[in-house]
Amino acid sequence: MASRAAGTYPPVPEPLDHPVVDTHTHLDICTGVRLPLGAGEPEPEVRPDEDEEFPSLDVFFDTAQSAGVQRIVQIGCDLPAARWTTELVTQQSQQGRKWMLGGVALHPNEAPRLAERGMLDDALTEIESLVASNDRMRVVGETGLDYFRTGEEGVAEQQRSFRTHIEIAKRTGKALQIHDREAHADVLRILREEGAPEVTIFHCYSGDEAMARECADAGYYMSFAGNLTFKNADELRRAAAAAPLDRLLTETDAPFLTPHPHRGKPGGPYLAAVTARKLAEVRGMSEEDLCAAVWKNAETALGNWD
Ligand SMILES: [Zn+2]
Prior knowledge:
Helix 5 runs parallel beside helix 6 and helix 8 packs parallel to helix 9. An eight-stranded parallel beta sheet has the order 1-2-3-4-5-6-7-8. By secondary structure, it is an alpha/beta fold. It is built from eleven helices and eight strands. Helices cover about 40% and strands about 15% of the residues. The site of zinc ion has 6 residues, from loops.
């Protein structure tokens, strides 16, 4: 990566035999526009120095293209990031650059914070108007439940926010991207109770093989991130092997979840190539066949990119 931070980023892998999509990334955090402070995402173990220069959007674009990650979905998951995302996605499409679609929501850890200040309902209204404002905004996400970082006091507001996001996705005809951390049973139950949107995607899928079957039966997509490569992820790899091929997606959640052996370092969308290779290995498929399948799945789930 061409930046002062070059030493801290994993190398760009060899290009894939067939392109893939990074269906979930945070370029606002990758480029230093936003720090991952309030958003409640897992924080990188290696934090950039205060005066560090972040790589630019173009660097992330170029490295992604050269690794074969030709398309990305930019996700903004608090209000400032959601506004930034909508503006960026609009601007890229006005410039005729077709590589990016967008998604916005209030992260499950953000919902109780806004509720405490009496701002949750207005924020949800703004999320709906942002996602409806542009045809290149295709995703309501990431929303869902996070019982790892939010205690009991936040659960009711998280669930209310999740239910409203489900309604927004259905009203606007967008895909739903779910953040599910240590909340599998409640996420599945609320989806059943509300009726899931036509396209429902488990971002950074973290369930086991049994849950993968349940998701498959319900027609949900399972999107795998860099944690698929982690040493202790055998259960996750079994889930990835068991999921139907036509329900699989690839993503990074960059700058988080950087694949093994660079776990803990900041990453970028280009690292979806590493996860795609791992997915091919786990499923005993050629790189080309696996990548062609997940590329097609991303189009089926999210629509046309041209
Ligand atoms: Zn994310």
